[in-house]
Specification:
The complex is a heterodimer of chains A (250) and B (326). With 250 residues, chain A is of the alpha/beta class. Chain A contains six helices and 13 strands. Chain A has a single domain, classed as Rossmann fold. Helices cover 26% and strands 32% of the residues of chain A. In chain A, the strands form two sheets. In chain A, strands 9-8-7-10-6-1-4-5-11 form a nine-stranded mixed sheet, with helices on both faces. Chain B has two domains: 179 residues, 3-Layer(aba) Sandwich (Rossmann fold); 121 residues, TPP-binding domain (Rossmann fold, 3-Layer(aba) Sandwich). In chain B, the strands form four sheets. Chain B has a seven-stranded parallel sheet, with helices on both faces. In chain B, strands 15-14-16-17-18 form a five-stranded parallel sheet. In chain B, strands 8-9-10 form a three-stranded antiparallel sheet. In chain B, helix 2 packs across helix 3 and helix 4 packs parallel to helix 8. Classes of the chains: A alpha/beta (250), B alpha/beta (326). The interface between A and B is large, with 85 and 101 residues. Strand 9 of chain A pairs antiparallel with strand 13 of chain B.
């Protein structure tokens, strides 16, 4: 099948963020970047669909400045066949502006399946995938934790609050991938070498107009430093007393 | 004065708590305008409409159709978008629940605007919608503004407490957009894990088990403690869901559920950064862990260093006794 997977380059979250002098973004100094978590699952899902289903071609797309080419090379090193870099100075916060650029590239591309991660781990708006589907007039399933594709139809499972639902849909379709489908494979040395020779096309991103913007960023209030009240089961009465009188939650 | 539309989520013929939260959120930005709630469901859902008046809905538009018995994203998003257009609303408010997060971007795209997604607070500042949205796994708060008109907003479950503002709403029948039974994406079934269990997003107390429990069957300790509280849900760490001890839907953390209950009890949870990202905004955190160096103790308001197999059964009995004495 012909599959597209849309990925985003995001900062590693295992850090203590600082706010940049502009006040509208995080300070980029010292941050490491990688493919957004859920987009890694989507890339793996794309590869597995074709491995199980008799082959095909997977294209990775990424929107942003030149630095995103490193993320696209990582996707290629996992086994993805080709890459498209939709170039712009900065990735807008507004998913609708992003969706228009992606739809302009994906429309008419003849893709059987267009995959996204459930959400980007940085801006966490969970909006671009279904917006692209609307622009292209395609069926869309979001946050699939299981995905099976065969014979022109797809089946997926979605996790709800305390329940899960199963859905069926015809291809071509847009699907966003949640955790649970597949852990992304680590690129092999051979894959890393091969990725250097795979095609990576650069095009200007045709971003849409922006209606939602970030005015300021701030750090949430710090929690009080942790407190160990003691050791062993004999501390239980003291814990219950604190929960009743201090925290007032019991 | 422009009116606000709130999408009232139901499942299995019952209103969900997030429906009331959406109405309260809509009320907060309606100013002198009206709040209308849109309630989609299978025939019979109209019986739930009056409840939405308790939280300030001036009118409830009810669209009944057999194809709305289960989640029907194409027909629901089309019906919502059509209503926003025909009703001339200033904004539409959805819950950022599993279903709401599926619908909101579709609605926004049909209206040709961006979305203020998963907001924890919001207000109108003149003609601009101003809201707060946690980004970077909750480590940073983005203060955002939407100049979109109509504005599309999804509200994080639990972030806004439903406030009573009772009135007797006008109940109106609304038509579905197109034929809901002709949708391409079809929900074929819903599996409910355990109907008696509280959902992680709605429970005021969460008891979470980690790998320190050593085996799936020892989750019994956590289940028993949750049962003793009476109003607690059970969560799990990623290590535990990866090992198949618990379903993925129970996972709390960066790639799972983000929760902020009144009380969070972590049992045998080391406190990996990816887990802390999902629960650090809980109001009170209790940690029980054998390793006094475990990072969970850095965020715990009350930590007990000890063996979960000794501490938790004692705590379960003490909680039962405390509740019985009330």
């Amino acid at each position: 099948m012909k599959i597209a997977v849309c990925i985003k380059r995001v900062p590693d979250m295992d850090v203590r963020f600082k706010i940049a002098a502009s006040g509208t973004a995080v300070d980029e100094a010292g941050l490491k970047y990688d493919m957004s978590d859920f987009d890694g699952y989507a890339a793996e899902a794309a590869l597995q669909v074709n491995e199980k289903g008799g082959g095909g071609e997977v294209t990775a797309l990424c929107l942003g400045p030149d630095a995103v080419q490193e993320t696209l090379r990582k996707a290629l090193s996992m086994g993805i066949d080709k890459a498209v870099h939709l170039k712009c100075d900065a990735v807008p916060f507004d998913g609708w502006a992003i969706a228009q650029a992606l739809a302009a590239q994906l429309g008419g591309g003849g893709y059987d399946l267009i995959l996204f991660g459930r959400m980007s781990i940085d801006s966490s708006n969970q909006s671009v995938g279904p917006m692209v589907a609307e622009l292209l007039g395609l069926p869309c399933v979001t946050a699939a934790s299981r995905l099976d594709v065969s014979g022109g139809t797809g089946k997926a499972q979605r996790e709800l609050e305390g329940a899960s639902e199963t859905v069926e849909f015809p291809l071509p379709a847009v699907v966003s991938i949640d955790e649970g489908v597949a852990r992304p494979r680590y690129p092999s040395l051979k894959g890393i070498m091969a990725a250097k020779k795979k095609p990576l096309e650069v095009k200007p991103a045709q971003l849409g107009a922006v209606t939602v913007t970030v005015t300021t960023m701030e750090l949430p209030p710090e929690r009080n430093a942790g407190r160990i009240i003691g050791e062993g089961p004999d501390m239980v009465p003291e814990l219950v007393r604190l929960l009743q009188t201090e925290a007032k939650v019991l | 004065m422009a009116n606000i539309l709130a999408v009232a989520e139901s499942r299995g013929g019952e209103l969900r708590k997030v429906a009331c939260e959406a109405v309260t959120a809509a009320r907060a930005i309606a100013g002198g305008g009206e709040v209308h709630a849109l309630l989609l469901g299978a025939p019979g859902i109209a019986g739930k409409a009056a409840q939405l008046g308790e939280f300030g809905a001036d009118a409830v538009i009810v669209t009944e159709h057999a194809a709305f018995a289960l989640h029907n994203p194409e027909a629901a998003s089309a019906t919502i978008a059509e209503r926003v257009k025909s009703g001339g609303y200033r904004a539409v408010v959805l819950p950022a629940s599993a279903h709401g997060k599926d619908l909101a971007p579709r609605v926004a795209a049909k209206l040709g605007v961006g979305i203020a997604a998963d907001v924890t607070s919001m207000r109108m500042d003149g003609d601009v919608l101003v809201a707060a949205h946690p980004v970077n796994t909750g480590k940073v708060i983005a203060n955002i503004r939407s100049t979109a008109n109509p504005a599309v907003v999804s509200v994080r479950p639990g972030a806004i407490t439903p406030v009573a503002a009772p009135r007797a709403p006008r109940i109106e029948a609304g038509a579905a957009a197109g034929d809901p039974s002709a949708a391409r994406v079809r929900c074929t079934g819903v599996t409910t894990g355990n109907t008696a269990r509280l959902d992680l997003g709605e429970a005021p107390i969460i008891v979470t088990g980690g790998r320190g429990l050593k085996a799936a069957e020892h989750f019994r300790l956590v289940e028993d403690l949750a049962a003793a509280f009476g109003n607690a849900a059970v969560g799990a760490t990623r290590a535990v869901t990866d090992d198949g001890w618990r379903p993925h839907s129970d996972q709390i953390g960066q790639t799972g559920r983000l929760v902020s209950p009144d009380l969070y009890v972590a049992v045998g949870v080391s406190g990996a950064i990816q887990h802390l990202a999902g629960m650090r905004t809980s109001k009170t955190i209790v940690a029980i862990n054998k390793d006094k160096e475990a990072p969970i103790f850095k965020v715990a308001d009350y930590g007990i260093v000890g063996d979960a197999f000794e501490v938790v059964p004692r705590l379960t009995e003490a909680v039962k006794a405390a509740r019985a004495a009330r």
